[in-house]
Amino acid sequence: MTDSPQDRLAALGLSLPKAAAPVATYVPVARTGSLLVVSGQLPLTGGTLKATGKLGEDVSPELGRACAELCFLNILAQLEATLGDLSPVVRIVRLGGFIACTSDFTQHATVMNGASDLAVAVFGEAGRHARSTIGVPSLPLDAPVEIEALVEIA
Q1: Where are the beta strands (DSSP E) in 6-123?
Q2: Which CATH superfamily is 5-13+32-153 part of?
Q3: For 123, what's the count of Cα atoms within 13 Å in the CB-facing half-sphere?
Q4: Domain boundaries in the chain?
Q5: What residues does the Endoribonuclease L-PSP/chorismate mutase-like domain cover (predicted)?
Q6: Interatomic CA distance for residues 61 and 114, integer angstroms
Q7: Cα–Cα distance for residue pair 36/52, rounded to 1 Å
Q8: Mind giving me the DSSP string for 97-111?
Q9: Rounded Cα distance, 98 and 123, in Å
């Protein structure tokens, strides 16, 4: 890959938001060896949630997908705040997605693809990752989506 992750973000017309401060007793990023664990990120933009509510009720799958993409941008913002830039990222190893939804909602994968597709767009093959996506009854601040990451760095 000749382009940097920052170049790929710019080519997509995207920029990283300011990394969100923790809202409870945890650190945004924990490091062990060459792995970084990024705490769950919400779809915040300018300190405000892009949407609130549940998939299958008041949030469409398309809006949920956009929220998942924004969650991944916030993951990248946490990585940049920790590392200085994204160049040390070797691989996105795993994404864990939590989708606040009704009990009959079944399009979890479609929503989570917002984050997964952006990971591949920014990191190429190094963005392909293992993934879990789980439907839950609620999330902090009534967010519809929350995503955490496991990232390998150089």
Answers
A1: 29-32, 35-41, 44-45, 48-49, 89-100
A2: RutC-like (3.30.1330.40)
A3: 25
A4: 5-13+32-153
A5: 7-143
A6: 10
A7: 28
A8: EEEEB-TT---HHHH
A9: 22
Question: Which residue in this structure is represented by tokens 């995503």?
Answer: 147
Complete DSSP assignment for 34-61: TEEEEEEE--EETTEES--S-BTTTB-H
Give the pLDDT of residue 2: 63
* Residues of the chain with confidence (pLDDT) below 70: 1-2
User: Quick one: which H or E segment has residue 82?
Assistant: helix 61-83
Tokens standing for 88? 């040390």
Token pair listed for 146:
């929350």
**Tokens representing residue 59 in the block:** 């949030």
Position 80: which residue type? Answer: E
